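Deviation from plan, reported transparently: zinc ion complex.
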Amino acid sequence: MKDAKPQTVYLNDYQAPEYLVDRTELTFDLDPQSTLVKSHLKIRRNPVAADSGGRSLPPLWLDGVDLELLSIAEDGELLPAQRYQEEPGGLSLTVTKPEFELEIQTRIAPESNTSLEGLYLSNGMYCTQCEAEGFRKITFYPDRPDVMSVFTTTIVAPAKYPVLLSNGNKVDSGTTDDGRLRVTWEDPFAKPSYLFALVAGDLQYVEDSFTTSTGRAVTLQLFTEARNIGKCEHAMVSLKHAMRWDEVVYGREYDLDIFMIVAVDHFNMGAMENKGLNIFNSACVLASPETATDAAFQRIESIVAHEYFHNWSGNRVTCRDWFQLSLKEGFTVFRDAEFSADMNSRAVKRIEDVTLLRTAQFAEDAGPMSHPVRPDSYMEISNFYTLTIYEKGAEIVRMIHTILGADAFRRGSDLYFQRHDGCAVTCEDFVVAMEDANGADLKQFRRWYSQAGTPIIEVEDEYDAERAQYSLTLRQRTPATPGQEEKLPLHIPVAIGLLGADGKALVLDKFGSTDTVLHLTEESQTFTFQDIDERPLPSLLRGFSAPVKLRYGYTGEQLQFLMQHDADAFNRWDACQRLALNTLSSLQGQYRAGETLDTPSALIDGFSVLLQNSELDPALVAKMLALPSAQELAEQGDEIDAAAIVAARDFARQSIAVALKPLFLARYQALDQRKPYRPTADDIARRGLKNTCLAYLCMTQDQDALALARTQFERDENMTDVSAALAAMVEYGPKDAAEQTLESFYRQWQQDTQVVETWFGLQSSSAGFGTLDRVRELMAHPAFEMKNPNKVRAVVGGFAMRNFNQFHHEDGSGYEFLADQVIALDKLNPQIASRLVTPLTRWKKYRKHEAGQIHSALKRISDSGELSADLYEMVSKSLA
Ligand code: PHE
Ligand code: ZN
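Because the crystal trials were delayed, the predicted structure below was used instead.
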């Protein structure tokens, strides 16, 4: 049973399923090479699909990939061969009655499954991944989210797998006659096959409990291999916070008696929200102060919450079809972002999310894979777990929240959950619930779901002193994207405020408001404010109220003024970013023209003020001191000149480091308090600024600075400080010393998978250290594993996605290397191959020389033989 040839699927072709599956009973007899799967399905004609005319019953289609069909019976009788037909991608069955039961036996080989989709082995433990279309690699089934069924799962396994898990509640367990273990699980909530999960292994667990708002006790269990049992606490605490938060903020209570999380080392994504049995990439759940950085602690908190929140936004109310993926992902990302904002610093969380959006989502939306948040078509759905679906989708939900207000948004979400509980629905249903609950009109707003591309807003202003009137004129346009030449004006909420010359907020209306939301709905619109007694400085798009590029001709002085006085913390940071972007773009121009580069005095002055102000939130200061990444600069410009970007950035950072060394040092010393590690917002902020200062200090390459890094490294207090010191030594210190330090670090941590991943990533993404030769050495290292996505992401991804300097080596060797890895990976794991090819897909944006090199690398992939559907879609769309 091979997969079907890549074909395009269209939203417009959606049809309700012909048949429904009321009950699904599965029995797994586990074996690495020969797992037997018995499925017993109670099937009935879908009344919604049933034609009123007396047509005969249409065939039943069951998806199936890489399965060996052993037998198939209907209502207890083996089906004769003429009743069914095996085809690429599945099985077609002739139907003779509107209700019947099927019993299907298949054989699969989890050990040979390197795609990590379906049932596979990770370090000897069985686990599943079924979203989006992995269940068809387990058994023949209508593997689509609008077929929802009640599942009962029996697992039979040898005694060396004492832990046998599936969705729902454990209803039976025992041993078979031949001494194997048998456990049965029943999930009372009807669900689509993509939420099915099974785990079997020799696992330990930590247990806790949570009492829900109505007083029900829920058992919480987190399963890992024995060696990781000490790394579960933070995830457990995060889970309990998330459960409480969802009750308080959304009125959502957990519904089963048990909630389980399992950590696995081999996983394509971050984590998966299977009903009652979330499965996590171990890097996204396991942490201890000694082994995990602050960033990891925060990532874990948000992903644990994200998966938990899916229990309502995703599982209780799920997607009708995969075009609606953002229905659950956009909403859930918005929910987890608000949760993290409530748990930590709201402004910092927003800055991090916006940085990701501007860097990577904007680039995606300007490239060959650009697609609307609700796509019209796809070849391989795995390619659509994108920043657009997730992050831009979350921005759409955030805009609805901004437009309606918090209370109205909550009314809308209550209605949405109430109306659609137990159903598979669409993005449209979500918007309608928001409208109906509030009598609101989101007609034009809907275009955000169907129109791709990043809108650009140009702003001009005018002050009329005589009339005391100030007006802002906003013009919007969205550049064409593949398959969408014409763009319509969107409903864009633009939050703003006005600053007076003393930095105070001006009053905007008769109610005394000092901020407001402009509703831009036309191509061009002017908004006028009365009784404005002085020419104000506008603070625009506060909190990044819409995912757009906003242009306004701020001067350097105005940006410095906003950096200090804007009431909106996000916009203070953004002013600093704009200042840095302007500076870096003129430095790039000077570099290209062969001129000497100007000292970035405006930035140096601005940073100097920041470093001396101990009143400001250190986390915010750290964010302001971080220059935009090379990737972000690449997205900003019209044509990417990799060498100019690297030169401009290096020069600016170097100049800042040298000019402000005493300030960096003073701040470093003040912040270097030796306290026991705690992952609290305050402590994370302190360490963040401290390590930003350390990096700048080490950029000077001065002995005393590097000695600080060494001392911090040797103190070995927590992984945040240790890895920051190590990164600084590797990037800026002498090579021999770096080699030795890396070596001893590896010896200390070689047993710890997560730390080894950090160790790989730190080297491959280092601008100075992570040469292609080094990357090849890392791939030959015994701890590297091509079949483990985390290792591939750390080494190959670190190099191709986070090492702008080495990856874009002028000889094109980086591109050729990536092409080789993509070709090799496609045979093992198409999803990973397809994600890794991303940097090559943007070839059109580079200068002619690099564009040619990247194009030929892509072409070589395309000509390398038969590609997976995943990779084929990416490569063919990029070459088109
Ligand atoms: N649905 C998962 C999430 O976002 C992501 C995922 C998709 C995981 C596909 C695995 C496979 O929470
Ligand atoms: Zn999700």
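The domain at 9-309 is CATH 2.60.40.1730 (Immunoglobulin-like). We consider this an acceptable substitute for the interim report.
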